[in-house]
Amino acid sequence: MNGRAILEAVKDGSLSVDDAERMLRAQPFVDLGFAKVDTQRRLRQGASEVIYGASKTPEQSVKIAETLIENGSECVMVTRCNEEVHDLATSHGLRSDYRKDARICIIGDIPERTRDSYVCVLCAGTSDIPVAEEAAVTAEVLGCNVKRTYDAGVAGIHRLLSDADTIMGATAVIVAAGMEGALPSVVGGLVSVPVIAVPTSVGYGASFGGLTALLAMMNSCASTVSVVNIDNGFGAGYIASLIDKRGEV
Amino acid sequence: MNGRAILEAVKDGSLSVDDAERMLRAQPFVDLGFAKVDTQRRLRQGASEVIYGASKTPEQSVKIAETLIENGSECVMVTRCNEEVHDLATSHGLRSDYRKDARICIIGDIPERTRDSYVCVLCAGTSDIPVAEEAAVTAEVLGCNVKRTYDAGVAGIHRLLSDADTIMGATAVIVAAGMEGALPSVVGGLVSVPVIAVPTSVGYGASFGGLTALLAMMNSCASTVSVVNIDNGFGAGYIASLIDKRGEV
Amino acid sequence: MNGRAILEAVKDGSLSVDDAERMLRAQPFVDLGFAKVDTQRRLRQGASEVIYGASKTPEQSVKIAETLIENGSECVMVTRCNEEVHDLATSHGLRSDYRKDARICIIGDIPERTRDSYVCVLCAGTSDIPVAEEAAVTAEVLGCNVKRTYDAGVAGIHRLLSDADTIMGATAVIVAAGMEGALPSVVGGLVSVPVIAVPTSVGYGASFGGLTALLAMMNSCASTVSVVNIDNGFGAGYIASLIDKRGEV
Amino acid sequence: MNGRAILEAVKDGSLSVDDAERMLRAQPFVDLGFAKVDTQRRLRQGASEVIYGASKTPEQSVKIAETLIENGSECVMVTRCNEEVHDLATSHGLRSDYRKDARICIIGDIPERTRDSYVCVLCAGTSDIPVAEEAAVTAEVLGCNVKRTYDAGVAGIHRLLSDADTIMGATAVIVAAGMEGALPSVVGGLVSVPVIAVPTSVGYGASFGGLTALLAMMNSCASTVSVVNIDNGFGAGYIASLIDKRGEV
Amino acid sequence: MNGRAILEAVKDGSLSVDDAERMLRAQPFVDLGFAKVDTQRRLRQGASEVIYGASKTPEQSVKIAETLIENGSECVMVTRCNEEVHDLATSHGLRSDYRKDARICIIGDIPERTRDSYVCVLCAGTSDIPVAEEAAVTAEVLGCNVKRTYDAGVAGIHRLLSDADTIMGATAVIVAAGMEGALPSVVGGLVSVPVIAVPTSVGYGASFGGLTALLAMMNSCASTVSVVNIDNGFGAGYIASLIDKRGEV
Amino acid sequence: MNGRAILEAVKDGSLSVDDAERMLRAQPFVDLGFAKVDTQRRLRQGASEVIYGASKTPEQSVKIAETLIENGSECVMVTRCNEEVHDLATSHGLRSDYRKDARICIIGDIPERTRDSYVCVLCAGTSDIPVAEEAAVTAEVLGCNVKRTYDAGVAGIHRLLSDADTIMGATAVIVAAGMEGALPSVVGGLVSVPVIAVPTSVGYGASFGGLTALLAMMNSCASTVSVVNIDNGFGAGYIASLIDKRGEV
Amino acid sequence: MNGRAILEAVKDGSLSVDDAERMLRAQPFVDLGFAKVDTQRRLRQGASEVIYGASKTPEQSVKIAETLIENGSECVMVTRCNEEVHDLATSHGLRSDYRKDARICIIGDIPERTRDSYVCVLCAGTSDIPVAEEAAVTAEVLGCNVKRTYDAGVAGIHRLLSDADTIMGATAVIVAAGMEGALPSVVGGLVSVPVIAVPTSVGYGASFGGLTALLAMMNSCASTVSVVNIDNGFGAGYIASLIDKRGEV
Amino acid sequence: MNGRAILEAVKDGSLSVDDAERMLRAQPFVDLGFAKVDTQRRLRQGASEVIYGASKTPEQSVKIAETLIENGSECVMVTRCNEEVHDLATSHGLRSDYRKDARICIIGDIPERTRDSYVCVLCAGTSDIPVAEEAAVTAEVLGCNVKRTYDAGVAGIHRLLSDADTIMGATAVIVAAGMEGALPSVVGGLVSVPVIAVPTSVGYGASFGGLTALLAMMNSCASTVSVVNIDNGFGAGYIASLIDKRGEV
After folding, report:
1. CB-based burial of residue D205 (10 Å sphere; 0-12 exposed, 13-18 middle, 19+ buried)?
2. Shortest alpha-carbon distance between residue D203 and chain H (Å)
3. Distance (Å, rounded) from C-alpha A82 to C-alpha A101?
4. Interfacial A residues in 8-37 facing D (CB < 8 Å)
């Protein structure tokens, strides 16, 4: 019985005021109109759901995915997982696609893309590719077209500039970079769309597991840059997808 | 002579290949189509420009504003300035509006808003208001409608929830918070649009001038949250405006 | 109209279900039973209220205090304020008591203490006294008896031990210490009641404004010790008062 | 011969002043009335004792437990231990109960609870459960009733609010949280009893092994919150038990 | 009545056992033989006492000094004070000597030195001299001969080496250095006596107020080096005096 | 078709202005004269190229080296690799030389040195040798003569001074040091050529993986010292080679 | 009497071996051939000397300068000084030139430049100019030609590229940058000469007084970059001058 | 030929001035009287030598020890080594004694102690014993008598006080403590001899591998305390032995 139903029952006398008061307190606020409160845990982008694989066994991940699909989800994404999840899903008769670089297993059907717009994902060096791919695949599963420009470090700035048109045409740009974390600033100066910077834990010595890149990105001289946690490719892909679909409705 | 003009001149023989080659190298890339490269420094959102007032004398700020307006800008925003800029602008016969809380002086006419959408700006405590206002006024000058929910700290969570409908209806949400920096996480769990978190330097002791809030925001358990520099209300307002107008063209 | 009143009105038909649903959403959750949600901002310990004076003008502080007392508060405490608040309160005809060491102005009547139990406040050096006093006066205004043992640093451990009986008889012990922050561990080994440690910003060089004391206290080998923010005497006094009155009801 | 006995012997001449002086110096201060000095190492809460298992072999832990029980202890708790301790204790004919989540082995009989009051233990995510359970089981062994509310992260605030009545009825609330460490602030705003915050080392990137959560909790805007060391569930459970039994005597 | 006197009184019946027991507990442990417990606060080196001037008014400092001298102290040292203390002491008819560089005022008569041994004080740059002088004057007032080698930074290593004989002949060496804090390591390699390193807050940028020097000194490759707090010249001088007089008794 | 070729084609009419404009934008800036933009990735010092072996399989490293040599490179250096690379290169019929201490495999022929000048490489302790050797071998492969002075820690300063003539005669000096990182300052005071300091991760406790050495080196009192990342021997060797060959052309 | 003179005196019998041995030990090593040991303190580049003005009164600075010039110095540079030094020098009849941006006063005649080569000095923003100018003027006084490219931040990368030819033609490049400190990496990718990076304390929030820029620069992906202390323009200019004159002799 | 011999040769004409000058420069400074420069590397305390075992193979350690003993050393101490060194030494026919707790192997004969004085070594918890033992055994091998007081943490302060007489009678006190690092302050208040504090890496969470203990010790309110690196028991034992033997000559 949701909030309205309770009120109706009070109105027609089938529910006492006392009971109604108790019920209103006890149940999820969702019934009072806060339906979106639950959005965070069930990502209803397109028709996809997300399982954070790092803290689950392959069995747990696949079991949850299976249940979701049985209940109507078209596509379930398991992040930070290894190939075992894929093998197990396949052996359960599920359609499964494992993206090794991204460490993401996609179970079910990736929703078709209905927009022409695209998100651009860049990274500075080859070691940053796993984080960049996590972002790119996340955005794809959430319904975005994605264009990638990898290995475009600032010490070889011409490589970045040669892709400038592509970058400037995106609705949002994700930039993954470790070491000195300079790439988002350069990109942020090229584009007039939001740049989501992802510091990576790539580097050694004074890179401090990504802290240096994180701090550098926070201090970007480009006003278009905001930052997510170290190696948080998923978060970047998720935010970019929210921006990309902004023009939709 | 821009890139095309140079090519035309080469074609008609009025320019030698040697001279053309030298000219192409020497001049700003803008002529080769990288017009947007310059976007960062001249914010052509609506018809507004931005002057960073903190590192300039009132005279310098007003002089630059005057020149921009004489050259066709409708509206110039001077950030991090005091009331002197406003007084001086007025004495120069410029239309000027000083927003004390935001420390922003708006010279010229704020562009009319043509969108129905709005950006929501929240802050945790009254001490965070200057940063929140810098974000809010920035977004307004850049053409956005803005709705404010101030003093909605997590230790009085009901205040936040009572504004939940407003918050959930925005195209982007800016959250300024100091101390433990928890508000963006709570908000990020409520909404399915990008949340731009601004750590503020409000606090004492182990707040370390905003570092604690910054780190907490980076670790947000809500995937919708990205972060800008401590006290960087301008950046947050700017990014939010980019997202808000995304649906426009 | 609170939650129950709304339900009654729905029941007797004076309120439509639609309007009731809207009203339930719009109003503070307090009406649905979350009365204590508001506790944080209005500290109803005994009959006292608290105003954080640091971010207010004396005029603002006194105005708020006056209003609260006119509305039935017996006692209002203004923290982190200077003597101006006291002078202004007195000139408004309010009964006022300024505790210089604690930087607290007490307006109205401190509630009588009805318990025999007491809270013990210790500090390591004379420079820690302001923080210790903020804690002690806070606890007193919130209805506790307080016993003080000041200047009991660990480098003169006999001073502490000579007060051991007093310390061991308290319901809660507050320990303020800067520099190496060792006192809470020693005290925590003496007593079997909660010890609330307050790192102070006293020290120089590698004390880093209290961070060293804070970290040392976090690592206390005594299991009875928990820690509040640097210089947060108010918080410590508040928590101690909650523990002290625990046995009351 | 304790302090009084020594004095009596001096009085009746059976002990010389010289010998008495030497004896007073040499013996534990406990004889001079500091009996509780020893409390820290032998936790006489109910009738339970605690062994820190992390720095001991299973054999050592079980040997100590056996000796304690032979000497009259009803219940001995071994913390941070694995199942080997349990197996070994059982093979020694000891009644043993292993709590896997809490990594605690309880040897002997948990004391019956004689109070109606209860302690509430919350945690933000499933990864925080081991720390929360260490706190919960510790409090139980020390004689408290415990109610648990797990997986109540701030990004899904309604889950927390739906348990608000339970939380508000406790005598003390323990909150374990990693990542941004925001949960204690939200809880601290709901209740008017002490909140003991336990930062956990859960997180990645800029969580720095729990430091971010620790700093955030230190800066809590709720005055009811004090903090213990990262992952220190035992300390939190111990302090909560002290508060819970405060009303007893 | 000290500990022995109490025992004698019990013996001769002039004091009851009850009263004796209470008195033993109440009074300073000094009477039970812990006379040195008090050493820290009353430095009985030679016949000198120390007042920490930084947290006292000139009036307070002089008043304390006066009282000490009236009660038999030959010499009182006021540290971290300005010339006002000296002027005030002189106007009170006290013999006073102000050491400007060391910020120390010596009231009374410096004890004559009866040892031939000496302490050596070095510093790296002219900006380190105040800290070095605080150490040197402290050691002198505490009865040591002191030899100074200033401005002997490692970037001009020959200056240090030319004083090598002097340095090697000391009973203890104090080295004050800011910036990279390298001098103690070099000195520690030259001598076979304890080297007390004092990091100073001299430097800029990445010197972090002396933290860099402190950390460098902690990592000294010379095994003879131990470290005191940043700018703690007094502590270094005090420890050196303890070592210097070691051979005395 | 490079930039000039495009212009020529426009001039002779074989290329339209439109196509020329598009081509100028699309192709690498190298064609417009920024040939050196690419320098970073292909180190054309003498005739050597560099492969960063740490992030590649031996197979990948050798394959790249083989291709480069087939395309005319005389010498290819694989850094941070183990002996497998050497064995594999040899089995491919390549001339290969593995420098174990430096963890560098040199494939092909080290270019002959044509300069009399030399670079000097120092290190403080035997544990710093791998970093020093990485620097030394890098400089050698890039065409420099190298003189080594190892195990010259500041705590045995005479060892350093006995090599002073050698050190002072170099065109650039590389100094690798961990722990307190003092050696570059001492060396920087001896020479009037650039000193490139390399902090190493050698040490324990408060050395923090090289951070202490890094900070100490940044604060060097010698103006000749600049610093590269922790353990970055390659970078130091590369910069030194640039300085050494400065006098060449 | 220098080392040689001592030996001559021993040879001709005018000095005993004992006295000679003592004298050799006592005097500066400079006489034994380590003349360059003293180089650090007396910068004999061209014919210029340097006085660090920050820790001296104008009177002291001018007095030293006057003495140096009377003793044959052609040019003395006073760093980190204000205009008072210039006024005082002029009033003493000295030829003086005050460079306001660089905070350097040049007393005497800047040596003529005899090389064609030049050093390039870049900075990211207008706020970085004082540090850049300190570097540039230092290099000029030490005999270098200097070319400046200011306000070339990475967020407007085309400005940098348009000066690429100038930058690529230098013998050494100095790059001063605050905030994210990204510029040196971009420049380091363009050139094949040493890049000396100077982090500046420009920025706010998470720039931590230049620490973020410093760390970012240490992690530069360009192998040509080494770093000096925050705001250390003088050091950068000095090192660049050493590299520039490398080709001279 | 040492310095004096050179001078004699010049005097009698058998050596030219030119050659003498060159020779003086070339040879170790030891010949000029800096014999003690070498002290650091060869610890001639009593007749013992030290080998740092951590960076050597057992074979290397034993080989060095064997050589030293063949050349007249009575006793060689190998630190941070495992039992293999002992076994190997024994198999080489060397007298060997392995101290497991201290991780030290003593090869040869510990010198007899000729002093009555003693050094006292304390530690806070059982986990600190390895570091304390490293200090204690080092001091013993270097000729000191050592008295140990272990497991004397500040949370059970009476245990420390019951050993007060022993502690107060030492010539130097070493205190090893992890966690909050409070013990040295308490001890420093009891004694009037130098206290050498050794932070240990014992602890978890916010102990940061010993950094918290280190910082706490640096801030000790007792003036007798100086600090060595984390876990540096050897250094503490070495310094204590220097102090202990101070009274000897």
Report:
1. buried
2. 13
3. 10
4. 25-30, 34, 37
The domain that contains C86 carries what CATH number?
A: 3.30.110
**Contact (CB, 8 A) for E175 and E232:** no
How crowded is residue F188: how many other Cβ atoms within 10 Å of its Cβ? 27
pLDDT mean over F24-43:
35
Q: DSSP of H41-90, one letter per residue?
A: TS--BTTEEEEEGGGS-HHHHHHHHHHHHHTT-SEEEEES--HHHHHHHH
Give the model's confidence band at E4: pLDDT under 50 very low, under 70 low, under 90 confident, else very high: low
Is D155 in contact with A40 (Cβ distance < 8 A)?
yes
- Statement to judge: residues A133 and A190 lie in one domain: yes
Partner A contacted by F158 (CB < 8 A): no
**What residues of E are in contact with residue F128 (Cβ under 8 Å)?**
none
The ipTM is: 0.81
Angle G37-G39-G42 from CA coordinates, rounded to 5°: 135
G207 close to A (CB below 8 A): yes
> pLDDT per residue over D61-101, tens digit each?
898 888 888 877 788 999 999 999 999 999 999 999 999 99
Enumerate the β-bridge partners of residue A106.
A77, A97
Note the pLDDT tens digit of each residue in F78-123: 999 999 999 999 999 999 999 999 999 999 988 888 889 999 999 9
Q: What is the mean pLDDT of chain E?
A: 83
Domain count, chain F: 2
Distance separating alpha carbons of residues H99 and H77, to the nearest angstrom: 11
State the best of F149, F162, F167 to mutate against chain H, taking most chain H CBs within 10 Å. F162
Q: Report the SS3 class of residue F141.
A: helix
Chain A adjacent subunits, 3+ CB pairs under 8 A: B, C, D, F, G
Instruction: Say if D113 falls within a structural domain.
Output: no
Q: A57 is written with which tokens? A: 């066994």
CA distance linking residue C172 with residue B125, whole number of Å: 31
**D199 and H CB contact within 8 Å:** yes
Nearest to B203 by CA among B178, B229, B233: B178
Q: Is residue F184 part of a domain?
A: yes
Backbone φ and ψ of A38, nearest 5°: -85, -10
F103 and F152 inside one domain? no
Residues of F within 8 A of A127 (CB-CB) are 55
Domain interval for residue F39 = 3-108
What's the whole-number mean pLDDT along residues A191-200? 95
User: Are B87 and B126 part of one and the same domain?
Assistant: no
**What distance in Å separates the CA atoms of residue D147 and residue D137, rounded to the nearest whole number?**
11
- Stretch (H or E) spanning E78: strand E75-79
What value, to the nearest 5°, has the Cα angle with vertex C152 and ends C146 and C153? 135
Helices assigned H by DSSP within chain A:
3-11, 17-26, 58-70, 83-91, 129-141, 157-162, 164-168, 183-190, 211-218, 233-244
Cross-chain CB nearest to E216 (options F157, F181, F189) = F181
